[in-house]
Design goal:
Transposase Inhibitor Protein From Tn5, Chain A, domain 1; 2 domains; 10-stranded mixed sheet
Length: 351
């Protein structure tokens, strides 16, 4: 493993993500076919056994630090603290039980979960953690770093009144779905204003345990969704936004669902080239880094091409020396201006 620098490991694994390599042998063979480009990348050759050993034993945390280092650049001017909105959700990746016994969570099945906080404005994940699939979403949420003054949106899987109380104490707003068996008493009925709003109420939780965990006032909003007529009950500590605005916030959750769908369809997180827990984590983290880099490329050169179209262009041009402006726009950039000749500068003249 010492013979494989971290940078070469990272480049090879990133290459595997962007070019959709199918196996460890496939990664090595494809990478070595571009040996003439290794020097320009500052990388080197790899062997299958050495790469497998590095993925299994080299700490995944170092690549997580790289992810966060790139995150600030990827978010650019979208970084804000007050009134920020964040979406929380998780996605499960199924694994073969015979190869991934360490991740068993159901009879005959293994899997891992990616617990994610997503910025809908910058369209990037701001935090994620990787756990065994059997870990409950609300347990993972308790370990998430939360931003004071922000608003967090999530579904019913994250209902935890102690966690709700902790957020309220920190001036953090939340919008979630109320469970159907929640017991409560109505303190005040507000005017149900807004298209689709059926009820807008201030409530107290009435079951002894729930009241102990969250003793303050909550807000309950019932909303009828226009597209399918489904009635949703929201629970929130936000008393200022209108009921329609609360419903619109919850609607943004589809963005994180689209994010999960995109990375599963376009990056390598459904089939793994290593079977150890560390190797799986490295592959997922580098997939997230690949997503950030593609987004950064679109920021550098504004284009109408979708992220999927960009990913396909990168895949077929990755090891070619192509100008990114030409690649994304089809327009050849103007040649660099030559520096004016200095008459006082000496010249080498062929004899």
């Amino acid at each position: 493993m010492r013979s494989l620098p971290c940078w070469t490991q990272f480049c090879a694994m990133l290459y595997a993500q962007l070019c959709s390599r199918q196996s460890l042998r496939d990664v090595v063979a494809a990478w070595e076919s571009h040996s003439n480009a290794h020097y320009h990348l500052g990388a080197g050759q790899i062997k299958r056994s050495t790469l497998a050993d590095a993925n299994a034993k080299r700490p995944a945390g170092m690549y997580m630090e790289l992810f966060y280092g790139l995150l600030g650049k990827a978010r650019g001017h979208h970084i804000k603290h007050n009134d920020a909105v964040r979406l929380i959700d998780s996605t499960t990746i199924d694994l073969c039980k015979q190869q991934f016994e360490w991740a068993q969570f159901r009879t005959g099945k293994s899997g891992v979960k990616i617990h994610t906080v997503y910025d809908p404005d910058a369209k990037v994940p701001t935090f994620f953690s990787i756990t065994h699939a059997k870990q409950h979403d609300k347990k993972a949420a308790e370990k998430m770093p939360l931003l004071d003054g922000a608003t967090y949106v999530f579904d019913r899987a994250y209902n935890d009144y102690s966690w709700f109380h902790e957020m309220t104490e920190r001036q953090i707003h939340f919008v979630g779905r109320m469970k159907t068996n929640t017991r409560f008493e109505i303190i005040e009925a507000r005017a149900a204003s807004g298209d689709g709003v059926l009820e807008d109420q201030l409530i107290h939780l009435s079951s002894p345990m729930a009241r102990k965990q969250y003793p303050s006032v909550l807000r309950r909003i019932r909303f009828k969704r226009k597209e399918d007529g489904k009635v949703l009950s929201f629970i929130t500590n936000d008393m200022k936004r209108s009921a329609a605005e609360i419903a619109e916030l919850y609607k943004q959750l589809w963005q994180i669902e689209l994010f999960f769908k995109w990375i599963k369809q376009n990056l390598k997180i459904k089939r793994f080239i290593g079977t150890s827990e560390n190797a799986v984590k490295i592959q997922i983290i580098i997939a997230m880094i690949a997503y950030l880099l593609l987004g950064m490329a679109r920021q550098i050169v504004p284009t109408k091409k979708s992220l999927q179209q960009l990913a396909r262009l990168v895949a077929v041009n990755l090891m070619q020396r192509r100008n990114i402006i030409e690649l994304l726009t089809g327009v050849t950039p103007p040649p660099k201006r030559k520096r004016p000749k200095n008459p006082r500068q000496l010249e080498l003249i062929n004899a």
